[in-house]
Amino acid sequence: MPKTQSVVALRKTVAGVPIPDLVRQFGTPLFVYDAAVMEQRIEDLKKFDTVRYAQKACSNLAILDFMRRRGVLVDAVSAGEIYRALWAGYVPGGRPPGIVYTADIFDRDALELVVSRGIHVNIGSPDMIDQLGERAPGSDITLRINPGFGHGHSRKTNTGGEHSKHGIWYEQLNDCLRLAGRYGMTVTGLHMHIGSGTDLDHLAQVCQAMERVAGHVGQTIQSISAGGGLPVPYRPGEEYVDLDAYFQLWDTTRRRLEERFGHRVHLEIEPGRYLVAESGFLISEIRAVKRMGTNIFYLLDAGFNNLARPILYGAYHPMSICPSEGDPDRLQAVVVGGPLCESGDIFTQEEGGYVCRRELPVARPGDFLVIEIAGAYGFVMGSNYNSKPLAAEVLVHNGQPHLVRARQTYEDLVRGERVLKI
To answer: Among this protein's residues, is 341 annotated catalytic?
Structure first.
């Protein structure tokens, strides 16, 4: 079994609100978001001309509205996300556009919505140029380019190279430019994103690739996007990326292009995880403590139906205990799991499904376990597996908790289903 992870963690509040108070008011499992953390992360990126939120990380309407009110624009990867952006008050069009649709395909709903609402498209496949050109000739478009290499914290989050489905292969650029020209479409922007967890060495390669591609496209380029992938530290000892150095690499690239083209080039960044991950907490109740051979299990009322990152990527999340009474006086090595009828429903696992232990305070049923840095790819990846209702979501602003999504009811679970009397 892998070496025990050592973390000492007791937590009594989330965003300044006592955990027992949150549980009494909203129940468990419960996602709680701290607005102050999101505000700080937005401020971190103020050097960029545009911060465009990749809402796939956490798409609650209250979060989208929060971003919009602070000048953050939005990215959408589906028709549903376009609708979310519209409902949250974002307006299509403009320079830069309020909403950008970024994808590798148009499904029929997305294409209809993009055309009818005039949504700017960041195109990830040559076929999309044909499909949009036939419906909306003369459009300005952005191309997402796969530069031929990638980087990510997991193979499943690597979005560049020949094993990735994302973006237009760099060797197809000329074909895409000719195709766009056939429909009178103008390539006004370029986007490159090679995966999450970007380091500066890989970033320098992306910047060089961006400069080469932009130079080839020419003076129609008005904007470049650094994409997303900004990491946040999940594990003890991990550090933030040097944002000043990160910006400097992209700004230097932008300035060289401006000198080459003789006009201003707009610089965007497209964070998702970075803006919301650390704001989020998943509060669960420990419902059983059981021994299985040499292992002690804390079994929660939250499972991978609520937070799938550990089972998908072996992702690490800090954890803490909020005791229902008293404070524990020692730690013990435990395995943390959920309620699902599935052996993989373990929060303390590494990529490949290897179960590991975590040192946590001694706890008992009725205590609360908080999974931290859970604001990104938490609720949005939730499911009804085992017919479990989706959790509630709460946003804490200025010390006040606000319910921003009601807990799914059992009636909600079967809404839309039909029994056939056959």
So the answer is: yes
